[in-house]
Amino acid sequence: MKAENFLPDDYRPAEDEPFMNERQLEYFRRKLLNWKGDLLSDSRDTIEGMKDGTRNIPDIADRASEETDRALELRTRDRQRKLVSKIDAALRRIEEGEYGYCEVTGEPISLKRLDARPIATMSLEAQEKHERRERVHRDD
Fold first, then answer.
1. How far apart are CA 92 and CA 22, in angstroms?
2. Which of 44, 49, 123, 124 has most Cβ atoms within 10 angstroms of its Cβ?
3. Which part of the chain is the Zinc finger DksA/TraR C4-type domain (predicted)?
4. How far apart are the C-alpha atoms of 80 and 63, rounded to whole Å?
């Protein structure tokens, strides 16, 4: 029986069930797919808006303002594109049976962390250690 057949809409992963069981994996798979769908939809809307928004604006201040808005929108879309690739990587980890485990320690990542950031690849402790090391090297 597939997980999607018995996953209720109000299901939330719980600490008292086996870690990364079929229901939890399906829950996170759906969460990631929905997030990816929203990002791709926003991206399509932006592209359509930019196609429609290409016009000749005679006032130089208005034109500069519009160019700034477009540049900001493109930067946002670039960040979202990178996010989509992280979502794809998380979906691959689900398929490969590696999802939910810290890539540094191999320990389970907390369900609370995964629910808040389903693309997480490190436990909170490993992430904090990584960020401290980054800060030290950045200050050099």
1. 15
2. 123
3. 97-132
4. 26
Residues 6+ apart with CB under 8 A from 89: 119, 121
In tens, the pLDDT along 21-51 reads 999 999 999 999 999 999 998 887 777 766 6
In sequence order, which residues have a C-beta less than 8 Å from that of residue 7 and are 6 or more positions away?
23, 26, 27, 30
DSSP secondary structure letters along 101-136: B-TTT-PBPPHHHHHH-TT--S-HHHHHHHHHHHHH
Report the topology of domain 18-138: Four Helix Bundle (Hemerythrin (Met), subunit A) (1.20.120)
Tokens of 47: 């592209």
Instruction: Kindly state the tokens that stand for 55.
Output: 């016009």
In the numeric block, the tokens 């990542």 are attached to 109
Long-range contacts of residues 43-48, Cβ cutoff 8 Å, at least 24 apart: 43/77, 43/80, 43/81, 46/73, 46/77
Tokens representing residue 2 in the block: 């597939």
CB 65 within 8 A of CB 24: no
Backbone angles phi, psi at 101, to 5 degrees: -115, 140
Q: Does pTM surpass 0.90?
A: no
8 Å CB contact between 102 and 109: yes
